[in-house]
Amino acid sequence: MNKNPLWKYLLVLAVVVLGALYALPNLYGEDPAVQVSGVRNAQVTEGTMRKVEAVLKRNNVTPKSLVKDERGLLVRFSDVETQLKMQDEIKESLGDSYTVALNLAPSTPQWLAGINGKPMYLGLDLRGGVHFLMEVDMDAAILQALQRYNDQFRTHLRENKIRYLGIDVEEKEFTADGKRYVTLRFKDVETRDQAKGVLDKEYGKVVYREQEDDKYAYIIAVLGDVEAAETKKFALQQNITTLRNRVNELGVAEPVIQQQGTDRIVVQLPGVQDTARAKDILSATATLEFRLVNDEHNAAAAERGNVPLGTKLYHFRDGTPILAQNRVLLTGDYIVNAQSGIDQDSGGPAVFITLDGEGGRLMLKGTKDNVGKRMAVVFIESKTETRKVNGENKKFKRKIEEVINAATIRDRLSSRFQITGLDSTNEARDLSLLLRAGALAAPIEIVEERTVGPSLGQQNIDQGFASVIIGFCLVLVLMAVYYKGFGMVANLALALNLVLIVAILSMMQATLTLPGIAGIVLTVGMAVDANVLIFERIREELRDGATPQVAIDSGYGKAFITIADANVTTLIAALVLFALGTGPIKGFAITLSIGIITSMFTAITGTRVVANLMYGGRKVKKLSV
Fold it and tell me: Are 499 and 521 a contacting pair, CB within 8 Å?
């Protein structure tokens, strides 16, 4: 008699309610906003909020809202022009201790946000996003290349038993053409000439210039034009690769990361909610150095100016001084993986490090003879910032060097170990992300930040949404006319199918793009196709003389195998597209995959439940099909 058990009715009802609930946030719009978050240990406090309120009052701006949450401070505005103006004013007022970033904040009601109801993201082609123009510090890239040569020169001259008095990278301009250089100092011209012959043979791309004074003979080593150009090109390409890795770690769908000119990179991020964190992650040049601690000397005395030979003075984050050896055991360049977690001994946040083969060998070599001694983990971060001085924009370089922790080496370390002493789980997560994605080859500065409009143009976007609406309405009319009562049941299932697709995209926090809309349009046709097979089978059973109840049962039962085969094969193709495709192909594949799964539920289970409510459990002489 086509009756369903109570649990099936409750299941369909629960799916309908949850689908409608989690699709609802997409009906609310977004507000242009400015997000304020602390840099490193700086906290967003009530004092920070009062400063922002003072800036707004001074500029006669009344925000839509000003809210402090776990991510910092979020100030909503009614238009983009005010948003851009207030970003500059707030940034100038708060200084370097805070990140002030543009945002597009959902206007979801609090009761929906309380049950984690969030709108799905829209791609750059549909909504726009955040645009960063970044400039690579090519001067720093040259300095890093010279520093590598500086270390190699020392090693090579020692191996060839040539005595030198000093090798240093000079950070000031020397040559007439403004090139930076490495100075090698020798006791006489004969030793200098011998060293030049050895170095010229090994490092042919470096240009060597000779110089003498009353005491010493010198070699001035500068990068040749070809070497300098290659270094700058590598820095730009490496930074693009690293930025892509970091954006992937942030989970941004379909970003735009591309070169602009010879020293700039464009990054466009659609659907980013925490733009302040994205801004910090993209521009950070964080790396680590592992050095042995010098416990034989007093660090407090060294802080007063008496730094022992062969050591360097650092500070913990709380300002406590510590002496570490100049020799670096290991750098972050050898890290191949880093995961944040919890240290089981202390219960505090930790980062679990995995080194490559060479890094494991260096760590083993550096710790096997130093068991019982302390090893300092030095966090190094370089930033280039632009500030207004006397009305002019000037660049300032800031380098942070601080010791995260200094733990005693209990045993020989190899390719796997952990870092503790971090302030919070968020810091552990961000540090692991930076180490995992790789270090920037040279510091970058965000020289322009703005929100961008949809890349396809509003007309194309409207046409894309119109195609869904028109196709949906035409299918509704056709099904209602051709299949009558059962056609209206199919229309109800089709509407539920669209709601479920939007709800699942919202719960997954996936990004909808124009190719994704194409996948939804295709899903609409496939969902109706399943009902057409069922209804035609019911008609066929009725023509063969079956009773209405038998016809309904046979129609759903016998059409199921055909529907399942067609949908499963299409689902496999969609999953292959998602696995192997990139960008727009993934956007199409994900909506198609979700649509196939939801249409199987709505077209078979959903319509069967409604049909059983209409006709089940009673005698029926005729079906409206």
Answer: no
Of 293, 164, 148, the residue nearest 234 (C-alpha)? 148
The residue to which tokens 């001074």 are assigned? 58
Among 199, 228, 257, the domain boundary falls at 228
Q: How many CB atoms lie within 10 A of CB 265?
A: 21
Boundary residue ending a domain (90, 107, 124): 107
Q: Write out the two tokens for 278.
A: 């994205």
Which amino acid, one-letter code, is at 401? Answer: E
Q: Which two tokens stand for residue 291?
A: 């050095």
Determine if the pTM surpasses 0.85.
Answer: no
Residues 6+ apart with CB under 8 A from 11: 605
Residues 307-318 have pLDDT tens digits of: 888 888 888 877
SS3 of 291, please? strand
Give pLDDT tens digits for 265-295. 988 887 665 666 677 777 766 677 888 888 8
The pLDDT confidence band at residue 16, using thresholds 50, 70 and 90, is very high
Count of domains forming the chain = 4
Return the pLDDT at 390: 67
pLDDT tens digits, one per residue of 384-421: 666 666 666 666 666 778 888 787 887 777 788 787 77
Distance CA 593, CA 505 (A): 11
Determine whether 204 is exposed, middle or buried from the number of CB atoms within 10 Å of its CB (0-12, 13-18, 19+).
exposed
Q: 310 and 414: one domain?
A: yes
345 with 202, same domain: the answer is no
Task: Output the DSSP codes for 468-523.
Answer: HHHHHHHHHHHHHHHHHHHHHHHHHHHHHHHHHHHHHHHHHT-EE-HHHHHHHHHH
Q: Based on the fold, state whether residues 352 and 467 are members of the same structural domain.
A: no
Q: Is the pLDDT of residue 191 over 50?
A: yes
Go through the chain and tell me how many residues it has: 625
Amino acid at 249: E
**Cα–Cα distance measured from residue 211 to residue 608, given in angstroms and rounded to the nearest whole number:** 92
